[in-house]
Amino acid sequence: MLVLDADTDAERTLHVALALEAALLNLSAADDLESVAQAIADGARHLTGTILVTLATVSPNGSGTRVSASGGMIANSADKAGVDQLPMHTFSLSTERHNDETLPLLRLHGEITPTNGVGIAILKRLAPHARLSLARAQHLEEITRLAYCDPLTGLANARRLRVALDRTALVANAEGQPLALLIIDLDDFRRYNTLWGHLVGDAALQAFARAIRSAMRGRHFVARVGGEEFAVLLPDTDEREARAVAAHIHEAIARGSSGLPSPFTASIGIGLYPNDVPDAFSLYAVADTAMTMAKKAGKNRTFLFEAIE
Prior knowledge:
Low-confidence stretches: 1-6
Helix content: 40-55%
């Protein structure tokens, strides 16, 4: 009997060690914040044997929490009780304490049995690896955000626009969908800066960005591509809708000038695929040309590339 108990203990120890190794391998293979959080939740569920595990972490902007889940109710279980009726325990990856609410926080839903109790204890061995992986993924996400985000306006930058344009152009070319690109440039912005100073100029750019964003729909992509120049990418959009969006932008800019020392206007150029270019990858050049022609025609107006002779 003692030998059998020893064998059982040895098997249990081996099982736990293998489960921890698998959890750590999955964690090391995760390459972004979402997959890291998922690997932690999955690993915690397998180590504890519980039905459902959720991991709550601080959201990237620090204003809330992000939750990842692993598991759920067993489909063929005769017990139809909801998850909220299961016993629930918490484990903080930060403090490594059971029933602590400090983020990042694991919530373990299910019965805690003696076997699972070993899993609860082993979470303390998972915790430092989980913290390190989360910190690295959060740092990488912040670096990526900074690389693709304009810090003044919070919009995407030129690098991110190029990625979005390339991706959207692939779809447009493959499926024959129309695609529009608007290049928007603030009129006489250098004079505005000289007259009112750079701080007021920055405030104008921020107000301009808010105005453009307010005129957009969910599938529209907005970026600041440099200085006072902005871009709007409009997937699956024809000439009529592109002109309508440009008109909304002009209206939003007029409203957005309130509160500034003087109003500002913008010139907009529109490039269309397939109207203006044989492939969608060439849209930027034609939209930028149309914007330049709008400037030369008197500013505060919209020009369509195909209308240029």
